[in-house]
Amino acid sequence: MNDLMMREPDVDDGAISFARGFVKSDAFMALFREGMGLVEQTAAYLDSDGRADSAALPREVALSYATESMRLTTRLMQIASWLLVQRAVAEGEMTVDQARAENDKVRIPEQIASAATLEAERLPAGLRDLMDHSFRLQSRIRHLEGQMSGKAPAREKANPVQDQLASLQARLGLAR
What is the reported pTM? Predict the structure, then answer.
């Protein structure tokens, strides 16, 4: 077969070569270790210090803690899934097409707005640090995903509910 017949459809050659090269690079392995380390660090925090931190919170802040910890664990599982799929490609366990199909099942979403700033400031520092780290990692992976697929990540969409809440908070003098 000639080279044209072996090409993968709908992906430009630059995206394929970047993807194949990146998943085998030291930079990817560092990203993989960072992501999996953050999963472990978060699990350790939530099972120990996080339990004590959440028990000491006022009721209204404890609800935010529960919400944000669920969002954090969901975000980290999406990140871990993406990293594991990329590692499987690097190790020859999956093809680029199989990886693309898996990544279509578990997309790294746009960042979801977290608790309002005032509310977030009342969360324990340990949880806030983990949230911040996960958001930075999520952003880097979304950027890489865009480079690897040959598509730029979608721009942040306006959130009309958040806009209305911000407007209402401003009118009530509760602006952030």
Answer: 0.71
Please report whether residue 105 resides in a domain.
Answer: yes
Which DSSP category does 9 fall into?
T
Q: Find the domain containing 67 and state its range.
A: 11-171
C-beta separation of 33 from 25 below 8 A: no
Does residue 81 belong to any structural domain of this protein?
yes
CA dist 153 and 142 (Å) reads 6
CATH of the domain at 26: 1.10.8.930
Q: Identify whether the C-beta of residue 133 lies closer than 8 Å to the C-beta of residue 38.
A: yes
Instruction: Report yes or no on 162 lying in a domain.
Output: yes
Looking at the domain assignment, is residue 98 inside a domain?
Answer: yes
Kindly report the number of other CB atoms within 10 A of residue 159's CB atom.
13
CB 76 within 8 A of CB 84: no
Per-residue pLDDT tens digits of the chain, which is 176 residues long: 444 333 344 444 555 556 667 778 899 999 999 999 999 999 999 999 999 999 999 998 999 999 999 999 999 999 999 999 999 988 989 887 888 788 777 767 666 555 556 677 899 999 999 999 999 999 999 888 887 776 654 454 556 666 666 666 666 666 54
Count up the domains in the chain and report the number: 1
